[in-house]
């Protein structure tokens, strides 16, 4: 029986039916699909304001302050963001109107972004600081993006922790040694660590090493990578780590463990601390990062917006200009805790948490010993790998207890290999010599 | 008759599988080739540098160890658990249809959500420690990087919860096709429950079990969301590393190199399973 | 009724038959009851393990944000709040994402079954050359991590104009689901006796008729299982969908990636919301899966 089963004519007919069915399904699909980004005619793709509420608030700012263009705001994780922009530009079909992201998010896209020097010229009167404009050139001469907003990192302190503060220490002018003593005293007094660290998979802890700990101890970053001061810094770090909450390796931000009361003191990005004091602002203070032998190292966080190649530059310029107005920028500060880049008088009626942060940021920038670090310049896609070097140092020295000299020696080779691949000059706080590849010291 | 079918019916078989081959080749052919090439070809031509990079990354070898350890421990437990559940249902307790539904629910939970819920259980101020605290036993840092054992067990339990339903559903659907007469016949001849399990049910379930085993193994190599949610970077697994190299480190070449390892291990396992599968189809028919 | 119980009854019967003596009869009955009770206890234990985590997600999704920061955490919904859930639901694109996701999920089902069921049948019924190689080919496509595939796939879609449509995601999901569909249905067809099909042919069915009227109903449980996997996989897939769409995202692509940066309360709200449609789908399909339970067709 079965030999005539599925004899040729039937199979063909079946195949035909299957083929028709398969063809019909996609036709059905292609005719509709619902828009998930508000249905605007201009897509603003960004890595910022991904959390639900932040996004909702920024969408409202866009609707209120950008009148001429209906913008749909589409925010996603930085990896997906980079992939989206790169694939669209390389395919020559760009559906993105403009992109927004941190300096480190935009730098890898340099080849995919339009030169916006003309727009930069138009905005030259807005009061954006020169060092920010220099950053946007990515080590070249043309502006790859326009500065959008800025932020930095501060230390959030639950007032309950102040009683463990070592005598003679001023919480607004802490040294690294006092910071450590505080952590030890707090741990001894309460029986568990009071200090937290954003060392989770998405945490920004590498910025602590790059912009705070190492510059404060060594005065540099790359050129002093293996110096005796750096060894001292890492030895200090290992000691500090012993007094931190070990669950820190799960913290992507500190505001949640702080709101839960798991962490009383900790350093993080302002946007990742702002929810901690939300319910009880009176219980919290925000202070600058500690001061080291070489000064108060701190890192500037700069976000910018750019125009992908092949996008409607004119429309993008309209949106960018509207977002660069002082009013708009202050509204972003009020709602989402990112500080203006343009000249704007910070008002007094800020929400309590933002006010706390604003004070700490001002104190940091105005400190006499302030030592500014910039995000890596010109590393492009290697930014992540350079950060990984510092993360690996942390893992090996602090978590696995390896000797700092040995680890730094091995990682220095790794770091140099990456720098040789991209051939970039050093960036602040290291001395900048144009045209000379940065050498690990 | 079987021989006649084999010689004559070759064309229909090819016609039936042709759409799937064409579909997969058109859709994934180019992406797979370019993905694979990426691991070995850089801007300066063919290079082994990416494999070297992968090899020298401290996280890579611990990811290999973690992935293999997890799969080797997880799969037998999972199949045992699924079979226990299936035979509990097969005994048809009161409300078995409801039980089956409830036991299949984890299937609906995405791995991201699954990671989230188990994090809320195992985290320092989570539900598990809440219970311990209420009982006066004190908290334990289950997910601390210093405590590899408890970290591993936490991931194991979470994965057991998340993915056993898949095996269960396959086994149950396989059971539906097994004629009751076999079991009844064995019963008449006085076989004990365990004997019937061993000699009647398990052999008849073998095709389903093997499909479940192949799919589960391949999928197990592909998941990382739960491990990442629970332990961040402290318990790296291979696919998580691929993802990290691709997104955070922006190096698709090394990502592809790790993907090659995942693929190679999966395929070796699949070949081994398929050899067993062929033996069983002979046995079953 | 388990066979174990039947055996207990049958072995007890000879003693009971000659003269009904209730006092003697209770021992096997008690054993039966004890076994029943044990069975129920075992089922409860398994149920607790499977359901408690889902309950905890639901609890957290409907708790106020401050309640989630307490310690020890509460196990009862004493601080019921729909605040986070409603904020989550009102965010841009949730409804549209839901529509897209359902569309993609159902279309994926259609495409993968149209292509996959015949292939599964071929594997089960025909011993053709390349049988094993074909199965390896299928697994091969599934063994490469999606993240490596999705970028070249996005380029392919961009150049053919399907990028950023539900169709793009459907195609990817169908490709991901096909190996599962084909292997599962083949396992099911393997279990359907060839005789049944041949009998239908003798009684005058066409091959297609024999397939749809005899084989398909018998294979329904397995097909239902495969459909559950396909739909749920498509429903929860996020890595590929994120790369292949921009303004017409599926729900997980729309919310899951942003949720990972959101406060815990929102992550639970989103996580719980995403579970619901998949649970409904499983409830529907379960009927077909358990279609033949207890029936004696053969």
From TrEMBL, chain A:
TM spans (from-to): none
Q: Keyword set for this entry?
A: Cell membrane, Lipoprotein, Membrane, Palmitate, Signal
> What PROSITE patterns does the database record attribute to this sequence?
TAT (PS51318)
Q: Which InterPro entries match?
A: Bact_solute-bd_prot1 (IPR050490), SBP (IPR006059), TAT_signal (IPR006311)
- Does the entry feature the keyword Lipoprotein, yes or no? yes
Q: Which PANTHER family match?
A: ARABINOSE-BINDING PROTEIN-RELATED, POLYGALACTURONAN_RHAMNOGALACTURONAN-BINDING PROTEIN YTCQ
Please identify the protein, giving its name as recorded: Carbohydrate ABC transporter substrate-binding protein, CUT1 family
UniProtKB/TrEMBL annotation, chain B:
| GO BP annotations listed | transmembrane transport
Q: Which InterPro entries does the record cross-reference, listed alphabetically?
A: ABC_transporter_permease (IPR051393), MetI-like (IPR000515), MetI-like_sf (IPR035906)
Is Lipoprotein among the key words of this record?
no
Going by the UniProt record, its keywords in alphabetical order are: Cell membrane, Membrane, Transmembrane, Transmembrane helix, Transport
Q: Which stretches make up the ABC transmembrane type-1 domain?
A: 64-273
GO terms for cellular component: plasma membrane
Q: Where is the signal peptide?
A: none
Could you say which protein family the record assigns here? Belongs to the binding-protein-dependent transport system permease family.
* Protein name, entry field: Carbohydrate ABC transporter membrane protein 1, CUT1 family
Q: Which organism is it from?
A: Pedococcus cremeus
Automatic annotation (TrEMBL), chain C:
Biased composition regions of type Polar residues, renumbered to the chain: 1-10
| Domain ABC transmembrane type-1: from-to ranges | 98-285
CDD domains tied to this protein: TM_PBP2
Could you state one GO biological process linked to this protein? transmembrane transport
Lineage top rank: taxon:
Bacteria
Q: How does it sit in the membrane?
A: Multi-pass membrane protein
GO CC, alphabetical:
plasma membrane
Q: What keywords were assigned to this record?
A: Cell membrane, Membrane, Transmembrane, Transmembrane helix, Transport
Instruction: Cite the Pfam families for this sequence.
Output: BPD_transp_1 (PF00528)
Say where the protein is mainly found.
membrane
UniProt key word Transmembrane helix: yes
Q: Does the keyword Cell membrane apply?
A: yes
Entry's localization field: Cell membrane
Any stretches that span the bilayer, and where are they? Answer: 37-62, 94-124, 136-158, 170-194, 214-235, 264-284
Comp. bias regions, Low complexity = 12-22
Q: Where is this region: Disordered?
A: 1-22
Matching InterPro entries, A to Z? BP-dep_ABC_trans_perm, MetI-like, MetI-like_sf
Q: Which family does it belong to?
A: Belongs to the binding-protein-dependent transport system permease family.
Q: Which PANTHER family does the UniProt record give?
A: INNER MEMBRANE ABC TRANSPORTER PERMEASE PROTEIN YCJP (PTHR32243:SF18), MALTOSE TRANSPORT SYSTEM PERMEASE-RELATED (PTHR32243)
Q: What is the official name of this protein in its record?
A: Carbohydrate ABC transporter membrane protein 2, CUT1 family
Species name for this entry? Pedococcus cremeus
Phylogenetic placement of the source organism? Bacteria, Bacillati, Actinomycetota, Actinomycetes, Micrococcales
